[in-house]
Structure prediction request, 190 residues.
Amino acid sequence: MKTTFKISALALAFAAFSFGANAQSKTSTTTDSGIKLSIGVDAGVPVGNYNDFYNWNLGGSVQADIPVAKQVFVTVNAGYNNIFGKDIANTSAHYTNIQLIPVKAGLKYFPIENFYVQGEAGAAFVANKSDLGVSKTALFAYAPQVGVQFPVSGKSFIDAGVRFEGNSPLVTNGKNLNFIGLRLAYGFGL
Prediction:
């Protein structure tokens, strides 16, 4: 608990320092005020224990970035992830795909032009609970992410980010379902 508090305090201090240091910096169209929407493709690879049973994941997401301060946005993200199961060696059996519907909210901060740091938390709903035979319907989900937004034209941009996404266990006393993911999205201002 103390370690978590120290890490949180350090992250908050870093964010405050970065915000103050960049208060006078020029911003691009990706950090200008106004609500922004992005639609993207999500892909990744499971890490930890799930790497032994699952190959990779593919999905999509829709995200809204709502400005709350200069270079700071509240994010709301919803999507779908299919985590593809591996074949069981020397049999015709196959691990059942895991289908998740993550719904998260968080903050996105631009410490420098076009580069952002983002953190989100929420729930990942298990879409195929009965097929998997698991006890949980919803998992706690969190996702720290870093990325770059490339202006395309006017208020549109390409958003490329890499993240670690963690989910609580599918079963009581199980292992966390974690993956390293990429998000490539097309975004536009409203």
